[in-house]
Amino acid sequence: MSRFDVSVVGLYILDVLGRPVTAIPEGGNVDFIEEIRLTVAGTAGGTVVDLAKLGLSCQAVGAVGSDEKADFVIHRMQQFGIDCRHMARLRGLETSATILNVRPNGERPALHCRGASDHFDVTDNMLADVLDCRFLHLGGTGLLAKLDGEPSRRLLQAAKQAGCVTTWDLVGAGPGTMQFVEPLLPHIDYFIPSIEEAEILSGIRGVEENIQFFQSRGVKCPVLTMGAEGSMIASGDQRILVPSYKIEVVDTTGCGDAYTAGFIAGLADGRSLEEAAHLGTASASLVASGLGSDAGISDRAQVEAAMADWRA
User: 138: which strand partners?
Assistant: First the structure.
């Protein structure tokens, strides 16, 4: 029996968020806003926190720096019961961090310091521990300079050989990101980007077109999140459209990570793809109702109750 439900490998960030921000004051002037928060975020960090809140046993695998931001990130994850023994603390580096100015409509222009996440790898002496799990999630490809490319391919291949279910997501796809992603595709069971990210990676437009593109390159099950349009899950020739829920959006930070966490939690329960996607949708909807990637979700019972209300 595996020690952990999920090993979450990749991008760990400290987010500093403020809302509502309509403009940056000119010169040295001061403006006043309603709320400022610090949260553990990133395509790995945001996901592992939500997974822990949903009741799964998790280990975090990544890196922070040797600064005060690292203290917060590690302590906060430990508060949620997340195992952090494989979170490297890298001397002389900053913890990856982002400043997010959240607009009244939920948009979030960002300023990012790449920091320690660019400088870690899953070494051979760690591998057995990292793969002691039912699910391995890799999050942050393209912003993991040392892990990107062949090290990530080897990790996902080893995870499959060890019997793990593999899931994957990224943040901020760019014109050069596909070179890091394409070698990974045959080793990914559940490929969970937004449709916008998928289109940047593939260079083609359209949901069905992207499903076929990634399936043809080895992905078992593309799961494309589409904002207000919901999500599309593809398994072979089967297509499952799960609608979004009607909510009042406060901040969209971490919604994709929350969807991924809920989806993995549903799979871990043995639910159908459609029901796993509904749990992902409910998790993302709750996160969108507050400020930061860990907002909205308190525990599994609360998410299940909210999902039941939205689906009634």
Answer: 9, 168
